[in-house]
Amino acid sequence: MRHLVKTRAFKCRHDPHTILDWYYQTVRLVEPAPLGKPRSRDSKDDPYLACALCAGAKWIISRDEDLLVLQKPFGISIITPREVLARLG
Q1: Which candidate, 48, 39, 42, places its Cα nearest to that of 70?
Q2: DSSP conformation class of 79
Q3: Which of 4, 21, 28, 71 is the most buried (most CB within 10 A)?
Q4: Does 86 or 16 have the greater pLDDT score?
Q5: Is the full-model pTM beyond 0.85?
C-alpha cells in the first residue's frame, strides 16, 4: 500500500502511512455469517448484514433506504451518519 500512495503522488497534510498503519492494525477480516434467507429488499445489501453479524457490530452506518427500513436486524442498529453524530454528541 505504501508503494501505491507514493506512485499516485497522493497529497495529504498528514503522513498517510500513519493512518494506513493504524487501519491495518485495527481492522479484522471476517467471513460473512449465514443469514438463512434474504433480509433486505436489495439482495446486494445482505453481505453487509452478514459481515456485521459475524463481526459483532453494534451499528451499521448507512444512508441506504433498503438497509434503514430494517431498523435493527439481529440486534444491529442501522442508523444514518447524522444519528451517529447525535448519539456521540
Answers
A1: 39
A2: E
A3: 21
A4: 86
A5: no
